[in-house]
Amino acid sequence: MKRYIFTIAVSAIVSMTGCRHNDNGDNIAIQPVKTCSPVATQSGSRLIFPGKTVSDDKVYTAFKVAGRIASLNVKEGDRVKAGQTIGRLDDTDYRVALDAVEAEYNSVRSEAERVIALYNENATTSVAHDKAVYGLQQITAKLQHARNQLNDTRLTAPASGEIKKILRHAGEVVGAGTPVLEIVDNSTPLVEIKIPAAAFARIKDYTSYTCTFDVYPGKTFSLRPFAEQSVANANQLYTIKLAFDNTDMPLPSVGMSTTVEMRTDSDSSDSDSSLWLVPSTALAGTGDKTYIYTIAADSIVHMTEVGVVRLTRDGEAEISSASPLDGAMIVAAGAGNLRDGVKVKPLPQTSPTNVGNQL
User: Fold this and answer.
1) Of 106, 169, 226, 314, which is most buried, counting CB atoms within 10 Å of its CB?
2) What letter does residue 179 receive in the DSSP assignment?
3) How confident is the model over 245-255, as pLDDT tens digits?
4) Taking the model in full, what pTM does it have?
5) 182/255 Cα distance (integer angstroms)
6) What's the Cα-to-Cα distance from 170 to each of 63, 67, 91, 156, 295, rounded to whole Å?
7) pLDDT tens, 54-99?
8) What string of DSSP letters covers 338-353?
9) Class of domain 91-151
10) For the domain with range 46-57+186-268, which CATH number is right: 3.30.420.10, 2.40.30.170, 3.40.190.10, 3.60.110.10?
């Protein structure tokens, strides 16, 4: 009997502390909520994307004529200068073709010179003269073409840079225009990022770009826009290339991974708004509007409309609010189960030095 009476007493106490009455006298449970304070961020919007360094000048070098590669004079990693000979084709067939054209040229030229001399002495017709002149022009062009083809069996570097990759090797037969070598210019690297459509639509609003590298701890590089592609790839991402502002300092090598931060100044027309970081679980929405719940001194929550600027990888949301949130206490989780004007029970904050309340 004593145990039964004690159970009833405990239940009554819990009911008294866990409920409140509304205006109609109905019992409404007071919901315990986790709370936090918004953290003010710097003015302006900020986006962070992974990126990598790429070459400002990357070219694929190929022979202009087909044939078997006789030799390549470079290996991967070698530095080359523009105009330097880096490979040759087997030119036997092209030399034979040139010899044949030269013999034909000598024959046609002798005949043309004889006809032209007769025409100058009024010993032949103008038709024969014109035929000789045009024939000489044709064989001269054919001879020049044969010489060019023989010269094109030599592969030269179109630009100065580093041999990044050898795509074809000596002994292989290649067609005209088949890439043989990839040359990159490491002297002026760029940073390449891929951004979604929402960020690309505001690309003109961003005023500063910086990047950091794990291999350069504590060092931040300033960037500037270099080029952008207005056509998205298969993943609906747009490619943006950024150049380093200070090219006098040692720059990262091509291929290094980096983290790029894009920042825009706050809009002057929205100067009364501020940006804050809150947990993404603090957001609630109805229709096309987003809200957070602020907690008053009497533990009554009030719905405050906010705008979501971005979501971070750490589970936070950067929001804009027309109402100042300095020192405010908000509902950090479970906001979707609340409504404006209800009373809540804030849970005590977890001590950073007493995790799990073990002490």
Assistant:
1) 226
2) E
3) 887 778 888 88
4) 0.51
5) 14
6) 13, 11, 14, 16, 76
7) 887 778 999 999 999 999 999 998 999 989 999 999 999 999 999 9
8) --TT-BEEEPPPPPTT
9) mainly alpha
10) 2.40.30.170
